[in-house]
Every structure is written in structure tokens, then in C-alpha cells.
Amino acid sequence: DAKTTQPPSMDCAEGRAANLPCNHSTISGNEYVYWYRQIHSQGPQYIIHGLKNNETNEMASLIITEDRKSSTLILPHATLRDTAVYYCIVSRNNNAGNMLTFGGGTRLMVKP
Amino acid sequence: DAGITQSPRHKVTETGTPVTLRCHQTENHRYMYWYRQDPGHGLRLIHYSYGVKDTDKGEVSDGYSVSRSKTEDFLLTLESATSSQTSVYFCAISQREGDTQYFGPGTRLTVL
Fold it and tell me: Which pLDDT tens digit goes with each residue over B53-101?
């Protein structure tokens, strides 16, 4: 499986954009980049995913570099409720399902 | 967490006792997964299922067994609980191969 590298923690001011980086230099051509987040004591929450094109939904934007070796999750206007651990995951597909390998993630602290 | 419940939500048991955790879904999704989460390890896949009676091992399957007799239920059993199995256990579901996984609220298990 391709592994990911994320900074262990980041701070962001409320109302500003939060840009969370992720390196996945060993990603293979058919692997997707997924982002999840986990607010304390809750189950992981799906945010967004992409293969090679940039993606946007109501929660966030995902920017994937052209060589696909890194990506950035953007929360355009961070709120205090966005304080969470954010996981960047590269999927591993096989004929039995899409298994996700979670690393340590980035602990994002949104401050007033 | 919509459509996914886990029971019990909290359990304290003693070393050597059997424990069964239940994941129940109302989404009729084909794939179901059991993860454990421990400090410093992120989430690790224990077992997964790709259909009724179809299961396979994940990264940390030793000491665990699973069963899936109905689409909606996926059971995780610790035949003889050990203190190293103290953890938070999350169930996840996905509709199709390669689809996004959605997580339940978790079960906090303490083995004394």
C-alpha cells in the first residue's frame, strides 16, 4: 500500500482557510486519495476523495498535484467545529473491497 | 453515523472472557469492516466482509473472529479477551467495491 505523510498538528484562525498537506509519493496509478476527519470520541467522517483531478464538495476542496505525489485538503472558512484529526489515506483496492489504512493524521486546531 | 449502529457502546470485561460486538446497518450495503483505534496507531483493519458469509482478514486479525449471517449485521468476537484488546472499535460500511466507507459511532472496550 502507498503510505502517506502528514504534519502531526496545525493551527488555523477561525474564518480563515485551512490548508492541510499530505505526501503520498509511492501512490500507484489506480489508487485514490481519501480524506476523513475524526472529531474527539466520534467515528471518522468522510470528507472528500479524488483520483487525479481536483475535487470540491460542500465541505472542502481537494487539490492533487499533477504527479499525484502530494495533495492538499482545503477547508475554505474554518470554524471551531472543524477542530479534529484529519486523515489522508490512499486506498488499496482489491477484488474484495476498498480497504483504508489510517495513519496518524493531522490534528487541526481552529482558534478564535 | 446515519444508518450504522454499534452495540454495546461501552463495555468493561475481564481477561479471558468472550466478548461479541455488533454492527448493524440499515443501508443494505454489501461491504462491512471492523477497525480498532489505539493511540499512536490510527485505525487498523481487523476483518472485513464482502457479502453474507464472505469475510477476510485485515491487518490485525489475530485474536478476533467475525461472522455475517445477514446483510445488516456484522459481528466481531473476541474468543478470550486480553488486555491488549482494550481499544475503541469502529465498524464501517461501503456500498460497492472501491466506494467510500462510512463509519459507526464506535464501541469502547476495556479488558481488565
Answer: 999 998 899 999 999 999 999 999 999 999 999 999 999 999 876 678 8
The whole-angstrom separation of Cα A68 and Cα A53 is: 9
Are residues A13 and A111 in contact, defined by beta-carbon separation less than 8 angstroms?
A: yes
Q: Give the pLDDT of residue B87.
A: 97
- CB contacts, 8 Å: B40 with chain A: 104
Distance CA A22, CA A19 (A): 10
3-class DSSP state of A35:
strand
pLDDT for position B61:
94
Note whether A101 contacts B35, CB cutoff 8 Å.
Answer: no
Q: Please state, in angstroms and rounded to a whole number, the distance separating the CA atoms of residues B63 and B61.
A: 6
What distance in Å separates residue B81's CA from the closest CA in chain A? 23
Which residues of chain A make contact with B37, given a CB cutoff of 8 A?
102
Beta pairing class for B10-13 and B65-70:
unpaired
Strand partners, A107: A9, A85
- Compute the nearest-CA separation of A76 from chain B (Å): 22
The count of CB pairs under 8 A between chains A and B is: 67
Pairing of strands B31-38, B87-94: antiparallel
